[in-house]
Specification:
It catalyses: a phosphate monoester + H2O = an alcohol + phosphate. This protein is an alpha/beta fold. It has 9 helices and 15 strands.
């Protein structure tokens, strides 16, 4: 058993190392990670957020079902939508809380694959830089918080992982957050939005999926994030308006989806202004808040409980499934596009 575990960890380390070797940062651009899809051009991904509670609040049960679904789909990687370690992130890269919340919980063989990580507000109240430190990968090679914001290029989809905590003015005015390498806020946000806008316009992937911790549109406890509605949403939707008006396919493509956590629930919301779909996957542990908000967008599905999201993507099809803590299918979403939509 020990020999198998050791071999598995060695494979994980090799995979993570190979991925990191393909990182290609450039000045004034978001860091990029290449993660090629399967040989036939398909991609399978799980997304989960708000999980790191030492297995409590059903975190272990969610992890077990993620392992089952991950094995069935043959997942390529996992996306974490933030709030990775409660209540206040980690103190340093040797903090035992990291293993207690991550390594010791997500033990299924199918989950021994890269995890691409964004930070949540609870991660920022600890040592936020520790989660990005390459030394954390010496503890667990799967944990790839490459940068505060970065892009995973996977052929059939580009995932734009975005650092949303600095947008939230309430956090910024609190002294308990670790804002190193962020201040000044206005410059940081302006640069990030410009980089995202450029990356979306340049992307040639069939599917463009933006990932952040905080929701843009939500019917769950926290509701809409005003700062993201004002600053981020126009970028995701302005490209689509430009596409509709100019028909310049190669220059005007917006995001297909925005995936977030923060609200400890599962939900699918359709924008009333554009084709963008808002997906919340924040049910990795503590849930059942019993609090709801209104949003002007169309709520397709909402579940005030624990669970996670899967995505199966090809050049022309996207199949998304929300699962509960027992692995039951709660909601599905399918989208297709013609081959020449990719041009």
């Amino acid at each position: 058993m020990e020999r198998v575990a050791g071999t598995l960890l060695a494979v994980v380390a090799a995979v993570a190392a190979a991925v990191l070797l393909l990182v290609a940062p450039a000045a004034a651009e978001l860091t990029r990670v290449e993660h090629l899809p399967k040989a036939e051009g398909s991609l399978a991904v799980l997304a989960v957020g708000d999980w790191g509670r030492r297995g409590q609040y059903n975190q272990t049960l969610v992890a077990q079902q993620m392992g089952v679904v991950g094995e069935k789909l043959g997942i390529d990687f996992v996306i974490s939508t933030g709030d990775n370690i409660y209540n206040d992130g980690i103190a340093n890269t040797s903090d035992p809380l990291f293993k207690e919340c991550f390594t010791n919980i997500y033990t299924a063989q199918s989950l021994q694959t890269p995890w691409y990580i964004v930070l949540g507000n609870h991660d920022y109240t600890g040592n936020a830089l520790a989660q990005q430190d390459p030394a954390i990968r010496d503890v667990d090679s799967r944990y790839l918080a490459i940068a505060k914001s970065f892009i995973v290029n996977s052929g059939v989809a580009d995932f734009f992982l975005l650092d949303t905590s600095p947008f939230y003015l309430k956090y910024w005015n609190s002294s308990k957050y670790d804002w190193r390498n962020v201040a000044p806020r206005d410059t940081y946000i302006a640069n990030l939005l410009n980089d995202l806008d450029d990356a979306l316009m340049q992307s040639e992937a069939p599917w463009k999926i933006v990932v952040g911790h905080h929701p843009i549109s939500s019917g769950c406890e926290h509701g809409n994030t005003t700062e993201l509605e004002q600053l981020l949403r126009p970028i995701l939707e302005a490209c689509i308006y430009s596409f509709a008006m100019t028909m310049l396919y190669e220059q005007a493509r917006g995001a297909d989806m925005y995936v977030n956590g923060h609200d400890h629930c599962l939900q699918h919301i359709s924008s009333r202004n554009s084709p963008v779909q808002f997906m919340t996957s924040g049910g990795g542990s503590k849930a059942w808040a019993g609090k709801f908000k209104t949003t002007s967008d169309k709520i397709e599905f909402i579940y005030d409980g624990q669970g996670f999201l899967s995505m199966q993507l090809s050049n022309t099809e996207a199949h998304l499934v929300f699962y509960d803590v027992a692995g039951n299918v709660l909601h599905t979403y399918d989208s297709t596009k013609a081959e020449d939509d990719e041009d």
